[in-house]
Amino acid sequence: MGYTPLLIRGTVLFCLGVFFCLVFNLLQVQRESTIFSPEVLARLFSSAWWVAPCCGIAAAVIGLLYPCLDERLGEPHTGEWSNVMRCIAVFVGINHASAKIDFENNLQFSLTLTAMSIGLWWLFDRSGSGFGLGVAIAIVATFITQLLIYHGVQRYTKLDYLFVRSWLPCTFFSGGVTMGNIGRQLAMYDHRKVKDE
């Protein structure tokens, strides 16, 4: 089979990660909940050019990791592209909600987004590996974001706990599940193609 299908899958996932990053960052900037430090922006030619490629790399790694983990744990994935598209729609909805909906308090908002994220996993994944990897992604990505904010690279207009917004782990979790499902579906397509040859 070679490395060509893996490279193509990684490239598709990278491009999707960059695209989603740009769309969701636009939502956050419109809401004025994310602001990049002026000093950092001045140094980086007035744009945080590194954010979208980092999200693209993360999407590629996550999307390639999910099918590998499924294979190792013996959890076969039997999805369809229509299911993946619905998963993407729910993921966009969760991010839209985090940017646009105002709740009475942060706890209510966090619990709502947590329920939506777990609902996304339940509807479109339901695997133990998917849940575990989604939680790991949420923890690691939130920690990295906290480090960036602590060092003044990025900041939020309002902070809920420590240095970040309370909705971040939910969006990272749902993003991990979504990219994992896309990666799984791309891997299934490659496997079917190899069998047909």
UniProtKB/TrEMBL annotation:
It is found in: Endoplasmic reticulum membrane. It comes from the Eukaryota. GO terms for cellular component: SREBP-SCAP-Insig complex. Its main location: endoplasmic reticulum. The chain crosses the membrane at residues 6-27, 48-66, 107-124, 131-150, 162-183. It is a multi-pass membrane protein. InterPro entries: INSIG_fam. Keywords: Cholesterol metabolism, Endoplasmic reticulum, Lipid metabolism, Membrane, Steroid metabolism, Sterol metabolism, Transmembrane, Transmembrane helix. GO terms for biological process: cellular response to insulin stimulus; cholesterol biosynthetic process; SREBP signaling pathway; SREBP-SCAP complex retention in endoplasmic reticulum. Belongs to the INSIG family. PANTHER family: INSULIN-INDUCED GENE 1, PROTEIN NSG1-RELATED. This is Insulin-induced gene protein.
